[in-house]
Design brief:
Layout (H helix, E strand, L loop, with lengths): L1 H13 L20 H23 L17 H4 L4 H8 L12 H16 L18 H4 L4 H15 L2
């Protein structure tokens, strides 16, 4: 379940701020950032690092730190028996997901959802950003999920600028 919520929900969390760009902890390529935008990016990145640490502190010992393309989590993490309880305990550490994505981010999220479906995860929902994303274990544990994530990675990378 969290393979999608981490790799995808954090994708959406990153896509919620029109001013700073569209990444899990990113800035949009191109123009310059204001100090407030840079602080917001650092804050989002720090929140993701804190979330990863919280997950480890709550029993998911192999939970990775976020990298340049956000947080990438495979089925081995989702299948950890401590995962669900840790996820619940660490929800407050996630970056703010309340803002809505801009038009470009929304388009990329819809493209990503379509890519996942085109690559075999037929029940993958349309991502809309804001308010979090709920993807059940039946999707994250779909045998095609990991291959689809790999096939659709380019969309995520383009969103990161």
């Amino acid at each position: 379940m969290f393979a999608a919520v981490a790799a995808v929900a954090l994708l959406a969390a990153a896509c919620t701020d029109e001013a700073s760009g569209d990444d899990v902890a990113s800035v949009e390529g191109g123009g310059s950032e204001t100090t407030a935008e840079a602080e917001q990016d650092v804050s989002r990145e720090e929140a993701m690092v804190n979330y990863a640490g919280c997950m480890r502190d709550n029993g998911v010992e192999e939970f990775p730190d976020p990298g340049g393309n956000g947080l990438q989590i495979g089925p081995e993490i989702v299948d950890d028996p401590e995962f669900e309880a840790a996820q619940e305990a660490c929800q407050d550490e996630l970056p703010d997901q309340g803002a809505q994505p801009g038009p470009e981010q929304q388009e990329a999220m819809v493209e990503f959802s379509g890519c996942m479906r085109d690559n075999g995860v037929e029940e993958f929902p349309d991502l809309t950003g804001g308010g979090g994303i709920k993807i059940g274990p039946e999707i994250a544990q779909d045998p095609e999920f990991e291959a689809a994530m790999e096939a659709c990675q380019e969309i995520i990378e383009e969103m990161h600028g």
